[in-house]
Amino acid sequence: MLNKLRGILLADPIVVVSTIFFGSISLIVSFFDRTGVVQIRVARAWARTLLAAGGVKVTVEGLEQIDPDGSYVFIANHVSYYDTPVALAHIPVQFRFLAKRGLFQIPFLGTHLSRAGHIPVPREDPRAAVKTMQRAAETIQKKKISLLIFPEGGRTHDGVLQPFKEGGAYIAIRAGVPVVPLVFMGTREVLPYGSGIIRPGRVTLRILEPIETKELTLKDRGRLTDALRALILSNTLSDSTTTRFS
Asked: What is the pLDDT along the chain (246 residues), one digit of tens a residue?
């Protein structure tokens, strides 16, 4: 009961106010920073504020697996809206999100996403979606950035890992960069699907071993996608990390 009151009276209002505050700063900054680097810094400050407001403590495992100056395609499970601030606050590389186009049509939020360099996916148009994935791969190569993708296509309603779409594997192989599985654990308890109340808690972000794609072809994308899902699933069920892609 106390956690519920804390969420209603403290955490939720801070989330709303900080989102408007940092979103406004990000929008202003976007007119002077075409790279999106400063905007990501603003987003990280927003993310840390949300975590602090919600009383959310984050443990990061496997941070040594990634090079802050490297380029990757991060593939993650998606169980809560709080996955996003956890990722922004604790993954120390320049990355952008691949997100559904509907988010870019929301006033204010859509403008921020576009100007920060995040990439919309028109899921209802397969041909346009392929062109978007090709552009995403080219962006990774040209700008030397990373991309974070939730291959389930949205948050899971019940915490059960859904089938993965092949877009993330396609982009990683085409860009020739390693793909890194990420596992979010505990964020669903902090902010469950359909709930507007943030609960304090401890969450874990587990970064698994990067998988090289330079020797792979686009024909391998299905096999790679299945292996990524198996890796993430095994880590959501236990501490096992024995599943590998080969």
From this structure: 444 444 444 566 777 788 888 878 887 887 888 777 888 899 899 999 999 988 999 999 999 999 999 999 999 999 998 999 999 999 999 999 887 776 666 665 666 667 777 787 776 677 777 888 899 999 899 989 999 999 998 888 877 899 999 999 999 999 999 999 999 999 999 988 877 788 899 999 999 999 999 999 999 999 999 999 999 999 987 544 434 455
The fold adopted by the segment(s) 56-237 is Glycerol-3-phosphate (1)-acyltransferase (3.40.1130)
pTM of the model: 0.87
- Please give the full DSSP string across the chain, using - where no structure is assigned: -HHHHHIIIIIHHHHHHHHHHHHHHHHHHHTT-SSSHHHHHHHHHHHHHHHHHHTEEEEEE-GGGS-TT---EEEE----TTHHHHHHHH--S-EEEEEEHHHHTSTTHHHHHHHHT-EEE-TT-HHHHHHHHHHHHHHHHHHT-EEEE-TTSS--SSSPPPPPPSHHHHHHHHHT--EEEEEEESHHHHS-TT------EEEEEEEPPPB--TT--GGGHHHHHHHHHHHHHHHHHSS-------
Per-domain residue ranges of the chain: 56-237
